[in-house]
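Title: Prediction job returns without error message
Component: structure pipeline
Severity: low
Priority: P3
Assignee: unassigned

Description:
Job completed but the reporter wants confirmation the result is attached to the right record. Sequence as submitted:
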Amino acid sequence: MAEKFKTSVGGQALMEGIMMKGPKKVCAAVRRPDGQIETKEEPCLPSKWSKIPLVRGVIGMVESLILGYRWLMYSAEISMGEDAFEQEESKLDRWLNEHLGEKAQNFVMSFAAVLGGLMALILFMILPTTIVGLLSKVVPLDGVRTLLEGILKMVMFVAYLAVVRNMKEIKRMFRYHGAEHKTIACYEA
């Protein structure tokens, strides 16, 4: 598993790094503000659920989200430095940090992850099914309904990728991702 993380504000890159997880270790490489690359690795702890079919997929996804979030925060600390987080806070941010601390940040990040997952579910699953369902009321689709729904899902996904690939940060992320695949292919060969 590999994750790239990068954010920018006003077109200026602030955070950039790569995290890769193997069967025994997880490693991250993060670009520091001075341009140097800092790496860190940790052992992967095996899950007792990893042998149970169906359950291991769900557990694996949750563990990946948690792991990705943790390494994203590590990348933010390294690439932006501690003082980057001490910028002007709104009154709400200050109150949340004083009363809830890290719990508030974890809640907001969890909420954002759930909201992102719901939006993807709606856009790529529910919307195509609804469109084909409405179309089937006008035109009899008989045996091609499932095929049409699948084609619509693929078209929507490819259209989504075509739109986001024009974003500067996403284009760079796609390049990193392609390089990762080439590196892994060479390693495995």
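Comment from assignee: result matches the submitted record. Residues 107 and 118 are 16 Å apart (CA to CA).
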